[in-house]
Specification:
The protein has about 140 residues and is of the alpha+beta class. It folds into 2 domains: about 1-105, Double Stranded RNA Binding Domain; about 105-143, no CATH class. It is built from 5 helices and 4 strands, in the order βββααβααα. The protein has helices at about 35-55, 70-75, 95-105, 115-125, 130-140; strands spanning about 1-10, 15-20, 25-30, 85-95. It has a 4-stranded antiparallel β-sheet, with helices on both faces. The chain is elongated, with a radius of gyration of 22 Å.
Length: about 140
C-alpha cells in the first residue's frame, strides 16, 4: 500500500536540501542534491512508518499538501533563521515493499558446528536459521 506525506524541502547554502515531515513530529533528513534529498526522504518516511507499525504506535493522517506552509514550519523550527528557498512536495513509499527490499532482507551466513550436533539437530528437524535468529535476539535482548 502506498503511503504519502507532505514534506518541506529547504534549500541549503551548500546546494543540498533539508527535509522535514511536519505531520510526523518534524521527522527530518537531508541530501546533497534534490535527488539525494528525495531518496533520503523516501528512506526516512519508510523507516518511520515501518517502525511505528511494528511497535504499534499510532500513525497520524497526512495533511493536505495545500495545508502545509514551509515558511511557517521554518519559523517554528528556528525563529531566528533567515528565510531560504523552500517548497512542499509529496513523498510516497510502499512501506511493505521497501521493508522487504531494505529492512527485512535476509543475509546468508556460514557457520561451523560439530558433526554430532548437526546430526542430532537434523534428526529432530531443527530449523537452523530460526534457532540462530532466536539465539541472536536473546543475546541482544531483542523481541
Amino acid at each position: 500500500m502506498l503511503s504519502m506525506y507532505p514534506a518541506c524541502f529547504f534549500k541549503e547554502d551548500t546546494d543540498g536540501y533539508s527535509v522535514v515531515f511536519p505531520d510526523l513530529n518534524y521527522l527530518s533528513t537531508q541530501g546533497d542534491s534534490f535527488e539525494d534529498a528525495m531518496e533520503m526522504a523516501v528512506e526516512c518516511l519508510a523507516g518511520y512508518l515501518y517502525t511505528s507499525k511494528k511497535d504499534g504506535d499510532p500513525i497520524p493522517e497526512p495533511s493536505k499538501l495545500s495545508d502545509i506552509n514551509p515558511d511557517a514550519i521554518a519559523k517554528e523550527l528556528d525563529p531566528d533563521a533567515p528565510m531560504c528557498e523552500s517548497f512542499v512536495n509529496m513523498v510516497s513509499v510502499d512501506v511493505d515493499l521497501y521493508a522487504k527490499e531494505h529492512f527485512e532482507k535476509s543475509v546468508k551466513k556460514t557457520l561451523s558446528i560439530p558433526a554430532w550436533l548437526n546430526t542430532a539437530a537434523l534428526e529432530r528437524g531443527i530449523n537452523f536459521s530460526q534457532v540462530l535468529q532466536d539465539a541472536l535476539k536473546s543475546q541482544l535482548n531483542l523481541k
